[in-house]
Design goal:
Blueprint lengths: L4 E5 L5 E6 L8 E5 L5 E5 L6 H6 L10 H19 L29 H23 L17
Amino acid sequence: MRAKWIGKSRNERVSLTIRKKSNTVFSDLVVEELENGDLKIRFVGMTGAMAATNELDLDDLASMDPTREIPRIFDTWQMYMKESGICDSLANLDFLEVHWFGAAPKTPNPIVDPEGYTGEEKGIRQAYHQAYSKVLAGQSAEQWSTCPLHGIP
């Protein structure tokens, strides 16, 4: 089922804030037409665990599992591109800048075991870095083998 999207012009420049009709809090996309006619698209920041899982209407939660979480974020963004009518695939876009983050470890307690916590934190950050890198390099899930080989940050 195709989502209903609402667009709202933000200023005198051609800039459009786009959100799904079901979202009353923040923009899912901000699209700006540049002077050369290209579109500059800002995607909503989200986690792959809850937000992307809910957006994709999946039953299984991928919490603290970057190899499943990160592809879900890109799947959600691709869904937004299709549903908003901008394009059919993220492979049509040049990613100029991507800000990512990793989750904080749930255990051990940083007060009780600061060294253990620091080690766990480094491991989680590395796992998220590898997951994002694989998706952007087209080495993740099968559908991402068509990710563009240009415009990668």
